[in-house]
Amino acid sequence: MHTVIPIEYFLVTATLMFFAGVYGFITRKNLITILMSVELMLNAVNIIFIAFNRYLYPGQLEGHFFALFVIAVAAAEAAVAIAIIINIYRNFQSIDVEETDKMKY
Amino acid sequence: MNLESFLLMRHELVLTIITLIVLVAELSVNDDNKRKVISIATVLFGINMVIGFLPNMAGILFGKMYINTDLQWTMKNILNLGVFVVLLQSVAWLKETENKIKISEFYILIFSTLLGMQFMISSGSFLMLYLGLELATIPMAALAAYDRYRSNSAEAGVKLILSAAMSSAVLLLGISFIYGTTGSTYFDVVALKYTTAPLQTLAFILFFSGMAFKISLVPFHLWTADVYEGSPINVTSYLSVISKGASAFILVTVLFTVFNSIALIWKPLMYIIAVLTMTVGNLFAMRQQNMKRFLAFSSIAQAGFILLGIIGASNIGMTSVIYFVFVYIFSNLGAFGVVSVIYYKSRKENMDDYNGLYFTNPKLSLVMMLALFSLAGIPPVAGFFGKFFLFTAAAESGYYWLVFIAVLNATISLYYYLLVVKAMFINKNETPIAYIKTDWPAKVAILICVIGIFAVGFYSGIYQYITSISFGI
């Protein structure tokens, strides 16, 4: 006896994850945490892609492909971002966004 | 599909090969001779540019993932020409001792971003668009953080990569809704199924916000000024001209081909954003003292003018956008060329330092004046025609108030462009910047820009050619 989890569960979870990411991106002070928030947003999008694919278009694979590409690109992005954050640490001796504000309006 | 059909993507293939050659050259040249890479990479890129100008074969590859028509071919060649000018301008900077060990990185990164933009321009599906966009953005952050020991550069890099990552997450959310409501990521299938249903409208707005980050339209422009100021000057010129031009072009094609059925929704949106972008860009540009920051805000205002062409949504609209980008490449690169020559010889980049420049460096001042006149849109130079066609496109669709506001903004922009001209020609200075002997690659670059500023304006064949390949809704 199979009971299928409705698609809404996935979409609500993903939306909560996405906006948790947005919230973290805006409020956090640590650059690494900001990067983690972005990763959270990207993973939320992956869930949406896969849920849509599985429930609405089970005959094709475009959503799965997209999610795979997003994972790969997010890894590349994190690598470059962390390299730059290390550079920030060497220059400022801190990775707090309050410190890295030499340029302002 | 046979092997010859891969020649359709010759822009990308040649660029990939060049990137690999530079990578091998980096490994085989020893540390004392790294400067050889500069000439190798520049000459190879020149060859790539010439190959790009060979006659085009239109066609489709990889099941409509990759589209190459005369339109894409033209845009790629325009970008190649711009990048060639940027490479010539950066020779003097790369020869400095502090850059000695990382010369090849500059070329590899800049070629990767260009490769991403070319794939983005040719994309026929949202997957390809996304991959091109990321390939164009991620190495760009590494370029912005190129000066490892300058804290401003690192700050610019981190600001660029984090805001780019955030914007691409928003863009992806939009694409995921587009996929969920239409069941496809291919442009032609999506275009058939797109309506004004609420979820699809939301998806469009999210997608548009993501793209607006890249072109730095106003509610999403906050990263621009900091990144432009912190990056090395030649990276800034690349970022403000090539990257922005590519994104503007892809926005036009996607709006006209995929989202043409909801034009009623995006036109009012564009209207508001165009007004905001022009006004805010101009108002902030007026109070800048740093030349890089000044040009950053002026480029935000220019992006607002580009929207005028898009809102026209006609053949003339698309023509005027491409034409404007073409003109903008020459005028902005001319201005950045002069700023970079002056900075790397005298380490000065504030507007006050330019006081009395004409009396010591008349040629550089004249080029700067021409470039600024072209950016402002004063009649004899090409910038005037670029703006004129954009205004025509908007007026043709009945947006008279928008054109009126744009003309007002063009007048305001004249004020701050002339401030620089006034500083160079009229203001007195006790200690002006001494006479600067420009190195020959930068001279060639500036010459190309000056010829471009005049030729594109006077030779009407270019505009007619672009009209023949453009399309409207």
Write up this protein.
The complex is a heterodimer of chains A (105) and B (473). Chain A is 74% helix and 0% strand. Chain A starts with 6 loop residues before the first helix and ends in a 13-residue tail after the last helix. Chain A has one domain: Helix Hairpins. Chain A is elongated, with a radius of gyration of 18 Å. Chain A is built from three helices and no strands. Chain B has one domain. Helix content of chain B is 75%, strand content 1%. Chain B contains 20 helices and two strands. A two-stranded antiparallel ribbon of chain B has the order 1-2. In chain B, helix 3 packs parallel to helix 14 and helix 14 packs antiparallel against helix 16. The longest helix of chain B is centred in the middle third of the chain and has 32 residues. The radius of gyration of chain B is 21 Å and the shape is globular. The model of chain B has no long low-confidence stretch (mean pLDDT 87). Chains A and B meet through helix 1, helix 2 and helix 3 of A and helix 6, helix 7 and helix 10 of B.
Pick out the low-confidence regions of chain B: none
What would the average pLDDT of chain B be, to the nearest integer? 87
Average pLDDT value of chain A? Answer: 88
Largest interface: A-B, 43 and 40 residues
Beta strand % of chain B: under 5%
Query: What is the count of helical runs of chain A?
Result: 3
Which class best fits the helix and strand makeup of chain B? mainly alpha
CATH architecture of chain A: Orthogonal Bundle
Total domains of chain A: 1
Structural class of chain A: mainly alpha
Question: Mind describing the biggest β-sheet of chain B?
Answer: 2 strands, antiparallel
Instruction: Enter the CATH topology name of chain A.
Output: Helix Hairpins
Count every beta strand of chain B, where a strand is a DSSP E run of 2 or more residues.
Answer: 2
